[in-house]
Amino acid sequence: MKAKKSLALFLVSCLVLCAFFCLGVAAADAAETANEGISTFALVSIIIGGVVLVLVTVLCIVKRQKLAESLRAYKRELKNVTWFSWKNVWRSTVFVIVAIVVVAAVIGLLDYAFFQGQYLLVDLLGGK
């Protein structure tokens, strides 16, 4: 159980780090387009991300035995998983792609119909 907690802590820390890094980069890009230099939000995000990175690294070094044990346990569990055959995976993938294309086409057609209907309604009501 403790190994699962350490792995969960590691994964959550990595997620937080990625979120702060992405926010920092996005804020830095926004500030760069405004030619103001780096914004305070970007600087704080990058600093917090750096601190989280250091903490995760230290935690991984300190808890490396438990982390290695939990990774080995997950690897053993993955060997026990019954995987689908390539034929089933291929069929499912094709079905998902076709379903996405059909839904996108329906949404696109509805969007086009509503857009044209809006123009017709505006023309009938004497708008510009």
Description:
By secondary structure, the chain is mainly α. The protein folds into two domains: 1-81; 84-128. It has helices at 2-33, 40-62, 64-79, 86-124. The mean pLDDT is 79.
Distance between the termini: 68 Å
How many strand elements? 0
Alpha-carbon Rg, integer: 25 Å
- Major β-sheet, in short? none
Task: Describe the oligomeric state of these chains in a short phrase.
Answer: single chain
**Total domains:** 2
Spans of at least 5 consecutive residues whose pLDDT stays below 50 are: none
Spatial shape: flat
Mean pLDDT: 79
- Strand percentage, roughly? under 5%
Helical content class: over 70%
In short:
The chain has 128 residues and is mainly α. The chain has helices spanning 2-33, 40-62, 64-79, 86-124. It is flat, with a radius of gyration of 25 Å.
Distinctive features:
128 residues, 0% strand, mainly alpha, flat
Structural topology:
Blueprint: H1 2-33, H2 40-62, H3 64-79, H4 86-124
